[in-house]
Amino acid sequence: MKIVVSDCDHDSLDVEEKVLARDGLSFELFQCRTEDDTVARCKGAVIILNQYAPMTRKVIAALKPELRQIVRYGVGVNNIDLAAATEFGVQVCNVPDYSIDEVSDQALTMMMALARKLVPMNAATHAGAWDYQQSIPVFRLSERTVGVIGLGRIGRRFAEKAHALGCTVIGYDPVFAPAADDFVAARSLDEVLRTADIVSVHCPLTDGTRHLIDAAALAKMKRTALLINVSRGGIVDEEALAAALGTGRIAAAALDVAEVEPLPAASPLRGLANCLLTPHMGWYSAEAGLELKRKVAEEAARMARGEPVRYPVNTVS
Ligand code: NAD
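A: This is the predicted complex of the input protein with nicotinamide-adenine-dinucleotide.
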């Protein structure tokens, strides 16, 4: 059975090798970037372990009839055309539970760094200053309202952590409705944007959430508001955000993800002192990295053995 890794930027694939070897399976590794590349390299594959390579309708159609499963390294499946996969009977799987703590910690760390002005104050102190007044204003975090957009696994864990700091936590999710006595109070998206001091984005990137945070949404936020996005770049309109940060429409932002990754060198966000940037690292810890690799390979092995998969994203007949 042909198994391929369409692309993967990990140091080593030893974990995958070990797991698959238990069933006498092995794989070929490629670094596909484009549709044509992916079709050419993955032709004949029954199972694809996929990181970022585009699994579009064109690619999926070209890889049939052999292709039966795509296992994504991660939670988000926005690089896979789910409708096409379902139509062509391709089982898509992800790993939804390997980095809930890491990503929620990333958002929490970003929130605290922005709230305490940690990065600019560190830079100023290293440059020779010793002046707390450069940090003015800083607000007491425990008296702030944190607004969480998307109360799934990561959003809810982040909400829990913000609640533990004493913050008032409100949230919006079209599917998940917190109970009345929950520590997260349910609000509309509009209310979250208008009343939160810190807005943290945790919904998936879909056609419905693309540019959910656009100029109109940013205009609803407080001038002192902080925006955090550790979910997917496309949810925030970067052009509108750069303008809002540049004019002081909102106070600061922290982004772990970008509309185009790597974030282009010419992006206006790179030059903004009130925009904290990290390179899509929220998922990563040594432990999460190993767990992700093991779970991706185990899911492929289940399919190869003809067993039910553990993390189906779509339903195929
Ligand atoms: P999840 O599926 O458990 O939760 C997502 C929640 O968003 C769901 O409750 C859903 O109802 C809600 N949602 C859907 N549309 C919405 C909308 N329009 N407004 C508000 N909420 C909406 O997913 P998760 O595990 O919590 O992960 C969330 C996202 O985090 C993933 O989709 C992924 O893109 C991103 N992620 C990023 C990293 C990273 O390294 N930065 C790592 C893992 C996941």
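Residues 74-76, 96, 99, 103, 149-155, 172-176, 202-205, 208-209, 230-232, 256-257, 280, 282-283 surround nicotinamide-adenine-dinucleotide (CB under 6 Å). Residues 286-305 form the longest helix (20 residues).
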